[in-house]
Amino acid sequence: MTRDLSNKPLYATTPFAVGGYMLCSATLLIVNKYAIYKVAAPSFILFSQLMGTAIVVKAFAATGQIECDPLETEKVKKFMP
Fold first, then answer.
1. Structure confidence by residue, pLDDT tens digits, 5-63
2. Sign of CA dihedral 8, 64, 52, 46
3. How many CA atoms lie within 13 A of 34 on its CB side?
4. How far apart are CA 27 and CA 42, in angstroms?
5. Under 8 Å between Cβ of 45 and 32
């Protein structure tokens, strides 16, 4: 008798995902601190990171690798000061 494991989560990959997330977060924190120390313009660094993220997301959406919702004016207005 064989068991079908195709619908079961892979628990062996969870520690790698958690470890990767921790490594990525720690690296980003260190890089941000260094960037602010060197550039001394936190707003520019934040803008650059957000713009870079938007470009990467749109590029992946354009190639069909991810599904991305369109930008809606009502959603944008909620984030405006």
1. 566 666 778 888 899 999 999 999 999 899 989 988 888 988 998 899 999 999 999 99
2. negative
3. 6
4. 17
5. yes
